[in-house]
Amino acid sequence: MKMLPLLCLLAVAPVALGAAQTAPKTAGTQAKPAAKGAGRTVELTAGDNMKFDVTTIEAKPGEKLHVVLKSTGTAPKIAMAHNFVLLKEGANAVEFNNAAMTARDTDFIPPAMKDKIIANTTLAGPGEIADVTFAAPTKPGTYEFLCSFPGHYQVGMKGQLIVK
Fold first, then answer.
1. pTM
2. CB-side exposure of 3: number of CA atoms within 13 Å?
3. Share of the chain above pLDDT 70, in %
4. What contacts 133, CB < 8 A, 6 or more positions away?
5. What's the rounded Cα separation, in Å, for the pair 68 and 76?
């Protein structure tokens, strides 16, 4: 029952905050390089509109990536935090997201589904930055990423890592 007020807030937040639809960007080989040894940096921002500004990331098989997620929103972290979760090939994003809704104690990363994750950041609240460095899968394909904070995936806070 504690989740009901939070879910209601999340359902109306985009309308109440005047969420604007903007065209998503693609982060390909033009992204700037990271510090030596950290891999190529891919910068994502996310705000109160519950959207990533980049929804497609292109990478070469095995390429080292440094994803930096900046939260630009103003809503309190308890009601509006963001993370980046990259799922393995074949992982069901809907099932993962449903399990994440009740995993507040682990920052909405369901312990029973950690084996479905390639990489993830911690939660970032207003003005905070979270990052993770990982190697892209060696198998070419499309891998889904999402924000696992309750309600965010449902309104479209997701994207794809395309390995080719």
1. 0.80
2. 10
3. 77
4. 34, 38, 39, 64, 65, 66, 67, 119
5. 20
